[in-house]
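Dear colleague,

Thank you for sharing your sequence with our group. We've completed the structure prediction you requested, and as agreed, I am returning the results in plain text so they can be pasted directly into your records. Please verify that the sequence below matches your submission; if there's any discrepancy, let me know and we will rerun it promptly.
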Amino acid sequence: MGFVKHPLIKENSIESRIYQEVLTARVLEKGNSLVVAPTALGKTIVASMVSAFLLEKQPEKKILMFSPTKPLAVQHYNSFIKFLNLPENQISLMTGSIPSVKRIPLWENSRIISATPQSIENDLLQGKISFKEISLIVFDEAHKAVGDYSYVFLALNYLKQNPKGLILGLTASPGGKKERIDDVCRNLFIKNIEIKSEKDLDVMPYVNEIEVEWIKVNLPPEFLEIKALLRNFMKEQLVFLKKFGFAKSISVQYIRKIDLLEMQSKIRKAIASDPEKKPALFTAISRLAALLKVSHAELLLETQGINSLNDYFFRLEKDQKTKAAKSILSDKSVLKAISLAKKLQEKKVEHPKLLELINLLKKQFNENPASKVLVFNHYRESASFLEKQLNVFPEIKAKKFIGQASKQNDKGMNQKQQIQTIQDLREGKYNALICTSVAEEGIDIPEVDLVVFFEPVPSEIRTIQRRGRTGRVSKGKTIILMAKATRDEAFYWSSMAKEKKMKSVLNKMKSMNSDLSKENNSRKMDSQTTLNSFSGNKDLILIFVDSREQASNAVRELSQYENVSVKVKQLEIGDYVLSDEVIVERKTVEDFLSSMLDGRLFSQLIDLSANCKKPLMIVEGNKQELFTLRNIHENAVKGALSSILLDYQVPILFSDSVKETVSYLHLIAKREQIGKAKEIRLRVGRKGLSVPELQQFVVESLPLIGPTLAKNLLKKFGSVKKIFNADEKKLMKTDKIGEKKAKEIRKLIDAEYKED
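Please find the predicted C-alpha cells below.
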C-alpha cells in the first residue's frame, strides 16, 4: 500500500487511492467544483490534498472549510491536524461557542480554519474579517447551499471579495431533482461536477457492501379501528372544505400533508383579499387546522404506535385554547378513538414494529455481543419510549441520542453530552443508540454493524445519510421496518424513487459535464467582470444595519448588491441608516401589530422623529393581514397608521417581501449617497463602535463639524486630546477648517459649564 507524498502532507498519513488523486487534480485544474461521492470514500481527504497543494503554491493565503454543525467542524479540524504537515497552532477551529474577541486572533494567525458558517457570517457582516486572504473555501454537506442557508451568502461574498478564489463543494447526496442540484451549483458558482459511485471501477475496491432488508408488519385490528374513527373526522372536514372549493377531493387516503399546507396558504390569501367572506373563511381555516392535527395523529398511530398517539392526545387535551382543538375533542369519533387508545395502552398493546425491533437487537447482540447498532426514529418522544422498552432486556444497552433543543418537558442533549454518549458507544457502555435526525449528518459516530430505520423517511438525502452510517470499514447491514398499507410504505417508495432519480440526474450531468463547464465558465467570467468593476467602484454605497437585523434575510439580500457595503452596528435608533439624514425602521406586519399593542411602536417613532431629518418606516408583508392577523379592530390599526403619518410625521412604505424591502433600501441609499459629498454620521448609533469610530463620534459633536471634517482633524492631530488642546491657528491648518469654524470650536471648548 502506497501513500501520498507531498511536503505539506504528513508522511504515511494518506493512503494513495487513484480516484482521490484524480479528483484532487481535476478540482485544481477545472476550478470551482462539486464532488459527489458516497459516504466513507474520503471526500475530506480530497479537501485536505487540495488544501496542501494550494498552501504550497500560495503560502500567504488561508484555507477555510465550512461544516453545518460544530461536531462536524471539530471532526474536520482533527482531520487537518492528522493529515497536514503544519504546526498545530496554524490550524484553528472557529464556532459560535468561541467568543468573537477570541475568533479574530485565531483568524489572523491561522492558515487553515475549520468553522461553522454562522460564526464566520457574523464576523464578516461586522467587518472583522475579510475573504480577500482566502485561496480556497470548502463547503461540506454542500447540498445545503439553497434558499436562505448561510452557504449561499458566504459563497457570494467570497466571490465578491476574491474573484479568483477557489470553491469546493462536498456531498454524498445533492438531492433528487435537477432543479435542486442546479440551485446548489448556481449558489456555489460551480463550473465542474465530479461524480463517483460505488460502481466505478476505481472506487469498487474501497466500497463495502451494505445489505438492505425490509421487514413488513400488519397493523392489529384495534389500530385499524382507531384509524377508521380518525378518518371519519378527517372526511367531515374535507367535505366542508370541498364545498368552499379548497379541497380537490374528499378521499382521505389520497390526501398528503403538502396538499393540506397548500390549502392553508390558499385560504389565508382568500381571507386577506375578500373581507366580506371573512367569518366563513375563518371557519374554513379552523377546520383545516383540525384536519392537520388529526392527520398527524393518524401518522403517529401508523408509524409509531399507541404510546406516541396517547402522548399527542394528552397534549391536545391540555391545550384547548383554539377552535380546532375544541372541535376535535368534541367529536364523537375522535373521543371514541381516544378512549380505545387509552385502553390499548393499559393493556400494553404496542406497535408490532416494536416487537420486531426487540427481536432484531436481541438476535444481533446474542450472535455478536461486541457489535454496535443505530436505531433511527424521527420523533423524540418515540426515541425516549424505545429507550425504556429496549433496556428491559439485559443484552440490549440502549441510549437515546437527540438534538440540543429542549422541547416541553424533554430536555435536549448539549454537545458535551452528545460527545460523551458517542464515546460511551465506542467503549461499549452502550451498544445501541436510538437516534433522531441529529445523527444523520454532522456527527462523528463510529462504525456500526447494523442500522435500523424504525420508520422510512420520504427524503432521499436523509435515507442515504442514515444508510451511510454503516458499511464504512466492513460489510454493513440496514433494516427498514414498515407497517403495510400505511404511510410507512408511501414514504419508503417516495425516498427510493427520489434516490433513483437523483442517480439518473447525476449520471446525465456527469456525461454533460463539459457542457456545464462551458456554461458556468461563461457565467463566471461575466460575474468576475462585474465584481472586478465593483472593487474599483467609486460609487460605493455604505449602509449601517442594526445588529438585531443581522439574522434577517434582508442583510443577506443587501449584501448581494455589487456596489453596497453593509456594516453591522448596534444602533440606538432605527434598523437601517441610509444617509446622514435617512434612518429606516423596518417591521414585519406581525411585529408592527405586536409593537402597537405593547407600546414599543410609538416610543420608537418618537426617537426616530426627534433624531432624524428624514425618518421612514417600512412595513413588510401582506398589507391586508394588518386587519386579519391579530384580533385588533380595523379602526385601531387605521388610527395608528394615521397617527404615524400626521402626528409623528413618519412616512410609511408598504412592501410585499424581503426582496422588495431591500430594493427600497438600496434605491433610497443610492439616491441619498451617489453624487453627494457627504458621509454617513456615526452619531445615529452610539453602541458597539470601534475606538476610531468613537473618536470620530466625539469630534463630530463640535460645532460645524461633520464626518469628513472630523476625519480630517483626527488625521491631522492624531488624537481627540490634541484636537481639544489646539488653538485657532493650529485648527485652521486642517483642510477645510477656516477662521469661523476654528473660532466656534474654541468657543465651545473654552466655555464654562453653567447648569440651566
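Summary note from our side: The domain at 691-750 is CATH 1.10.150.20 (DNA polymerase; domain 1).

Kind regards,
the structure core
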